[in-house]
Amino acid sequence: MCAGVPLAAQGPTDGVGTAARTGLMFDGYYFGSSYAFDHVVEWTVPVGLSYRLGPHLTVDLSSAYAHAAAATTSGTLEVSGATDSDVRISWAPASGHVIVSVVGTLPTGKKAVDSSAVPLLSALATEVLNFTTPTFGTGGGVMGGFATAVKLGEHWAGGVGGSYRWRASYTPVAGGGDLAPGGEGRVRLGAEGPVGGRGYFRGAAVYATSGADTLGAAARSASGPRFLVYSGLSLPAGGSSLSLYAYDRYRFRPHDDDSTVVQVPRGNVLALGARLDRPVSPALSLAPNVEFRHELAGPATGRLALLGWL
Fold first, then answer.
1. Residue 123 DSSP SS3
2. How crowded is residue 260: how many other Cβ atoms within 10 Å of its Cβ?
3. What is the Cα–Cα distance from 57 to 26, expressed in whole angstroms?
4. Which of 144, 213, 218, 266 is the most exposed place for a label (fewest CB within 10 A)?
5. In which band, very low, low, confident or very high, does the pLDDT at 1 lie, cut at 50, 70 and 90?
6. How far apart are CA 37 and CA 77, in angstroms?
């Protein structure tokens, strides 16, 4: 469930304008007392500020405050605080055709957490779950990328984009070793356009690959390339908008065959969902969401086994 509220908005004047937005995002998963976690809940308050400096240049600032809690057989686990902040500079030298962007992630969140919070943070980062805030902080980083679009016929458009992210090292657990995350590169192809007179379709394919993470002096872990296919259909529903979507993300085996490197197993996550965007007032909208997720995992060879579903 999420709710969004524009804090303030100023329409562009000669290509210059400012807009701010906030909201409340609530995620909850309830499993029952027979599991390690009876339930895990999280609420997030995102804040975004966008400043348009002209027809070709925009600066965006985004951050959030989040609180997560889990009930376990040994008690309640909690973690809360501000998250990292992103400063994005977007430049469109050819309006409507090419966008070049640079994003700086400022380490305003929790660089290190107490070891007692690790089980909760592990649950938040689990791929089969879909928490708005899967992590409360990193060491920061920088990402650069581009996107371009072309017309496909009279009403449709296609696009291609790419990016590379560098992440700084930090100490994720207080008293533990430093983590040096590997860099990540992404390539995206997409298409969108109207269907059936009233609907609007969006589809995309994303390929991502990353370097090995290094923990402490020598421990390394590697994840294989990921391939994601996404499709979504938006339909009018009275005064609301109904979105139906599906995506499948497959993680291949790592390229690194070094036996000293811990290899993240292959995996696949399938999701099917629906979201209803319902304006309550000019300043408030609600967006309930229902989703089915299914996750498989397995070794470098052989069949994938069911890891979980919800």
1. helix
2. 8
3. 33
4. 218
5. low
6. 10
**Dist. CA 272–CA 270, nearest whole Å:** 7
Name the average pLDDT for the chain: 90
pLDDT of residue 2: 54
Q: DSSP 3-state assignment of 152?
A: strand
- Separation between Cα atoms, residue 282 and residue 299, nearest integer Å: 51
Angstrom CA distances, 97 to 33, 50, 89, 100, 170, stand at: 53, 21, 17, 10, 38
Strands 226-237 and 199-210: antiparallel
Report how far residue 5's alpha carbon sits from residue 47's, in angstroms, rounded to the nearest whole number.
10
Calpha distance 38→72 (Å, rounded): 6
Coil, strand or helix: which one is 115?
Answer: helix
Which residues does residue 245 pair with via DSSP β-bridges, in sequence order? 232, 273
Rounded to the nearest 10°, the torsion over CA 73, 76, 80, 84 is -10
pTM of the model: 0.86
**H helices present in the chain, as ranges:** 118-124
Please tell me the distance from the alpha carbon of residue 297 to that of residue 251, in angstroms, as a whole number.
9
